[in-house]
Amino acid sequence: MSTITDRAVGAGLSLRRLYFVRFAFAVVWAGLLFATASGLGAVSGTLLVLYPVFDAVAAVVDARSSKATRPVPGLYVNIAVSLLAAAGLAIAASSGIPAVLRVWGSWAIVSGLVQLLVGAGRRGLGGQWPMIVSGTVSVVAGASFIVQAAKDGASLTTLAAYATLGGVFFLLSALRLGRTAR
Fold this sequence. Notes:
This protein has 182 residues and is an all-alpha fold. It is 82% helix and 0% strand.
């Protein structure tokens, strides 16, 4: 029979693997978006919808692995918000880059707040400070996307930079979780 500590370490290791996958996905996704960001076409539109769908799937995996320690209600909120964002982005992609930035910015604000709260609640697992900082950065970045949408020359490249930075935070958290497990 495993102890609470063993379950916490197992959950931490599961999170670590998930965070490495999220880092890799973010970097690859950002590179693809950057390469197609000059316009809003079928490829960039698909990429825009794919990112929150991946986020929702990652939250499902996270929620399942978190059941070993305790459920994290914020993950279920994140699943719903990310799926709504994906639907909103699919619609916004037909309206242009400013509409995409407004939807993405709104999603970044809400999911950033959720990430901040989930990270704060998981401080005991270790490796969560990058997630707390990332959530805070996401809220600020989301607001900046909404502001950017109102300006001439709005671009998708800022979303690629945002995803890359988010990926780096996942990498930092994964590395810190590895230290905590040892």
